[in-house]
Amino acid sequence: MPRPQKRGLFISFEGPECAGKTTQIAMLGESLAKMGLAPVVTREPGGTVIGEELRKIVKHHVGESAVVDEAELLIFAASRAQHVKKLIAPALDNGQIVVCDRYADSTTAYQGYGRGISLDFILALNRFATCGLEPDITFILDLSAEESYERGQRRQETLFVEDRIESAEIGFHRKVRNGFLKIAEENPGRVQLLSAMDAPESIHENIFKMVKKCLLPS
Ligand code: Z5A
Fold first, then answer.
1. Where does ligand 1 bind, in terms of residues with CB under 6 Å?
2. Atom of ligand 1 nearest to the CA of 141
3. Fewer CB in a 10 Å sphere around the end CB: N or C, the chain?
4. pLDDT tens-place string over residues 82-131
């Protein structure tokens, strides 16, 4: 379904669990606020009432009631369809900056490269769910599965909620990481690949520099 030409700026953050997306999004939000800009910060799955309900289903049902791979893919797509039409596209059409914690690349990496579902099918489903809306710029924070696991362990000491996808075996997370690397390689115009092992401040400096370039093209 065609949608009006977007006028705002659409930024997505991607990468494995604990790569620092939340940290970087908060830092970017603060820097943009200092410029007098108020980005719409949102996340997937989630971002709308329906999306947040779907998030609970897909993340926290474990054991016998856990979703099967096919349902998992469709739930992420359903959350995204709702998100694009109800929140992202209207904000962009209104000239706003949208910063999204995960978007369609996560489906390619997790359900495609991780679970092994057909990449062609996922490409078509992503196009359908997003009405073809792609981010202007995507930051992939790259982290090894081992370091992601270590960071997750440290965090779980303070916050424990069972999470079905996070607790998948390390081999799955390695495939996901490689998937993100492949996505970066195949989309050099849109994707910026950054090491998540650098200090948060230094990662932020790079990100902010690139975002400013998009806002104020020379
Ligand atoms: N998923 C999917 O399968 N398919 C899809 O289409 C979509 C999603 C959209 C969403 O989980 C899950 O859904 C996710 C993929 C799947 N599952 N997994 N795995 P989520 O939204 O709850 O969580 P997440 O997206 O994986 O993010 P996270 O775990 O909250 O991590 P993060 O936001 O990237 O990192 P953080 O919270 O900023 O930092 C994590 C920790 O690392 C924290 O203790 C920080 O202090 C530390 N940190 C941050 N930056 C650094 C640096 N630079 N150095 C050292 N330590 C750092």
1. 17-23, 43-45, 76, 102, 106-107, 110-111, 151, 155, 165-166, 196, 200, 203
2. 34
3. C
4. 999 999 999 999 999 999 999 999 999 999 999 999 999 999 999 999 99
Structural domain that includes position 130: 9-215
Give me ligand 1 centre to Cα 22, in Å: 7
| 176 in a structural domain | yes
Can you tell me which atom of ligand 1 is nearest the CA of 173? 19
Mean pLDDT within 131-141: 98
To the nearest whole number, what is the mean pLDDT of the chain? 93
Q: Which atom of ligand 1 is nearest to the CA of 148?
A: 42
SS3 readout for the chain: CCCCCCCCEEEEEECCCCCCHHHHHHHHHHHHHHCCCCCEEEECCCCCHHHHHHHHHHHHCCHHHCCCHHHHHHHHHHHHHHHHHHHHHHHHHCCCEEEEECCHHHHHHHHHHHCCCCHHHHHHHHHHHHCCCCCCEEEEEECCHHHHHHHHHHHHCCCCCCCCCCCCCHHHHHHHHHHHHHHHHHCCCCEEEEECCCCHHHHHHHHHHHHHHHHCCC
Tell me whether residue 150 is in a domain. yes
Span from the CA of 210 to the centroid of ligand 1 (angstroms): 22
Residue 2 within any structural domain of the chain: no
pLDDT of 103 reads: 98
Question: What total of structural domains would you count in the chain?
Answer: 1
Closest Cα to atom 42 of ligand 1: 18
- Would residue 1 count as lying in a domain? no
Q: What is the pTM of this model?
A: 0.95
> In this structure, what CATH number is given to the domain that contains residue 136?
3.40.50.300
Could you report the per-residue pLDDT of 158-174, keeping only the tens digit for each?
Answer: 555 667 777 789 999 99
